[in-house]
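Bit of a strange request maybe. I'm writing a small parser for structure token strings and I need a real example to test against, not something I typed by hand. Could someone generate the tokens for this chain?
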Amino acid sequence: MNYSNVICIGDSFTNEWDCYRREGLLEKFDELNYEFKSYPQLLGEHYGCKWETFGKPGMTMPFTIMTLIDKIDYILSLDNPLVIFQFGFFQNSTLKVDKNIEFIWKDFGGTYDDDAVLNDKDEFIDGLDSLDKLAITTWYEKYEEFRNYWYIDEFTTIARMVNRLKKVDMFGVFFSSPKFELPKNEHILWLFGGAALNEDIERINVLDGITDSHKSTEGNIKISREIIKNINESKLII
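Reply from user aminoacidic:
Good idea to test on real output. This should exercise your parser:
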């Protein structure tokens, strides 16, 4: 398959370059003479084409979906792009209480006993009493993954719509396993049989002095090979 472009949309597990740049790890890589490559970069190298990553660390699925929608015109302008959409963690989402209270679930302190609630700008948020925190925490622990299920259908609807306009190989991938069964769809790649990233996917903390648990180059090589294998086996490929 000769793709003209590789477009990848996702959170920090797709845009690890920004994650490592924020944490000052790029300088550490230089010190260790370590060459980091993301799976979007490896896909671009495999297909011999330009690769781009959209999205950023900390993005929840509402924003990843919005990013995909925002890029539709650009995707349609390309000759023959491969689009990979990485679903995030299904228990995460963004909540907006009012113009002054905005935060994402993954930035909570952990339990409703915590006094600290942070928004996505790492600013402390006031205005939530203990009962509010208890209600929100209980909801997210029990139900949020199931509510976020419908972003899968939203993605496949967008993919079908794009393909009515122009034939585009657009696939969703999962790096985490939610509590529900993942649906089978021609626009979904079941990487590693639909399982979460497992112990076989090497993390960057194999390097001395690094505690971050995002993927290493070797881990991304396995991810990119799995994506390529699944694309080759997909019924979207003629």
